[in-house]
Automatic annotation (TrEMBL):
The keyword Cell membrane appears for this protein: yes
Cellular component, GO annotation: plasma membrane
Pfam families per the UniProt record, alphabetical: BPD_transp_1
Transmembrane segments: 74-92, 104-127, 133-152, 182-207, 227-247
Protein name (database record): ABC transporter, permease protein
Residue runs in coiled coils: none
Organism: Heyndrickxia coagulans
């Protein structure tokens, strides 16, 4: 009975925190509206939230194709990032020498500014979808590989030894012990990768594209259309939250024991 009460209290607490966060954001919007209206700030310097909303409504006819273009780059890039990051992490876990040789290269790959590499990708792969996907992969595979590798290193050694005494194959070892144990770490890395992926797609579109939210953002900036700039930024934020929420739901479906453990703590 006490455990059920604790679970109910934790869920109620999460609901209250969510409601308070929403109320705080609404309050900030009212403050923004009041300051811009009270001090008569020009729209091109800082538009009112109502002006941003009106601009967003006026963009409906053209924003959806651009959302789809950016989402396509993000989703394909994320899919490849998961495969590449997971493969690198598995090989690093299986072969210590490979881990010793590759890990420094992974760190070095993240120290090079993506804006320095992206123009080269445009030259090599053109202005199409391929170069944008590669930018997303370069940004996203690192947190995934590192998170999965960290998860492998936290696997219970006693369980591994037990399966080895039962003559389990390497595939059985990974399927029965390592992959389930690494799921929470994988989703932690995926949440980071999701937030980076939209940014990567936008950077790729900045440097050369015919459509996408990054293209709309660049055109609005060059035209000093500040309300449109804020409206497109709001769409980008919404897309990022949508992807993050999808990952959260996927984690709840594939690793429900993590949330049950949190509820019982």
């Amino acid at each position: 009975m006490k455990k059920l009460q604790n679970i109910a209290n934790k869920r109620r607490s999460r609901f209250v925190n969510t409601a308070l966060t929403a109320a705080w954001l609404i309050f900030l919007l009212f403050v923004w509206q009041g300051v811009t209206a009270g001090f008569h700030i020009s729209e091109w310097m800082l538009p009112k939230p109502t002006e941003v909303w009106q601009e967003l409504k006026s963009l409906q006819w053209m924003v959806w194709p651009n959302i789809w273009q950016t989402a396509k780059e993000v989703l394909i890039g994320l899919a490849f990032s998961i495969v590449i990051g997971a493969a690198i992490a598995v090989f690093m876990d299986m072969v210590p020498v490979f881990r010793m040789l590759v890990r420094p290269l992974l760190v070095v790959s993240q120290t090079i500014p993506i804006v320095a590499i992206a123009p080269l990708l445009i030259v090599w792969f053109g202005f199409g979808l391929q170069s944008k996907i590669i930018v997303v992969i370069l940004i996203c595979f690192f947190p995934l590989a590192l998170s999965i590798l960290e998860g492998f290193q936290t696997v219970d050694d006693d369980l591994v030894k037990l399966l080895k005494t039962m003559h389990a194959s390497k595939w059985q070892l990974y399927r029965k012990v390592k992959f389930p144990a690494v799921l929470p770490y994988f989703f932690s890395g995926l949440k980071i990768a999701v937030t980076y992926s939209v940014m990567g797609a936008i950077i790729g579109e900045w440097l050369g594209a015919s459509e996408g939210l990054g293209v709309m953002l660049t055109r609005a900036t060059k035209s000093f259309m500040t309300a449109r700039l804020f409206a497109i930024s709001a769409v980008i934020i919404g897309l990022t939250f949508l992807l993050y929420g999808a990952v959260e739901c996927l984690q709840r479906l594939s690793a429900p024991w993590v949330y049950r453990k949190e509820d019982h703590q």
